[in-house]
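[Solved] Which block belongs to which protein?

Original post:
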Amino acid sequence: MKGDMEKSRFVQNSTTGHGGDVRHMASELGVRVEELLDFSANINPLGPPSWLRSLIARELDRVTHYPDPLALKLRTRAATHFVVPVESVLAANGTTELLYLLPSVLQPKRVIVPCPSYIDYVRVAELAEVDVKTIELLPEQGFRLDCDSLADQVEVGDLVIIGSPNNPTATLVDYEDLRSLARSVPGADFLVDEAF
């Protein structure tokens, strides 16, 4: 039991950073990859569905060319669906790529992150040399974000990054509470990451 607790503490305090790095974690813990249950990334632990293999095989001839670097077809479909201009839609290789671009685009004076949360929210700000203010989400409150309390701490020029559902707590933030929060500080930017 003591060894299991030590391994559990080690996993929580690991310096591996971004989730999904099961090979590194297994090596550090001295276990096989197959012995780990990885809840750190939104990857299906059952693997791809059976129909996907045949779909990939049918479309394999299309991978002889680079994909459209502007992702125009995808952006056009998204713009049509959300009734916004195509120029308002940005396609990227996942949320993390967009996160790393955000500070240079928005140039916030400070980034506010409710924590615990996805590690890259804070890392992105630190790499961009932007001040970070973390708001502690408390286990005794079910790691719920109190939008009213947060509103009192947000200032003009801030970028507030909120995961909903949050990673790793899996808590959701009420949509209307988020809208009220954003309206309460019109000079701040709010990013709601719904990737998980």
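(Second protein starts here: sequence line, then its structure tokens.)
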Amino acid sequence: MFHSLKPVLKIILVALVTGFATLPAGADPETDATFYEQRGQQYYNAGDYEAAIEALSEAVKLDPDNSHYHHSLARAYGQLADQSGWFRAYKLSIKTREGLERAVE
């Protein structure tokens, strides 16, 4: 019984958590990398690594020189790789390494 509630609770948690990602007054979410980084961290903390990767990829796209964004994205790839089958994990591990290398640069 409780096992079937877990996916529902996860969705509710993600919905609640992501509702708290706010922008400063007058900021545009389409161009604010901080907004996407915060949203990505919230997804990451909720365990939704695919959504975290999407949000953090957008933050990296908007601010490619920010090493913190690259590091956060690499962590999300690593966590998703940890939960994946070996073939997908291999592909994700390459992205993890590339992200960490870019963060160090």
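Accepted answer:
You had them paired correctly. Confirming on the second one: The mean pLDDT is 79.
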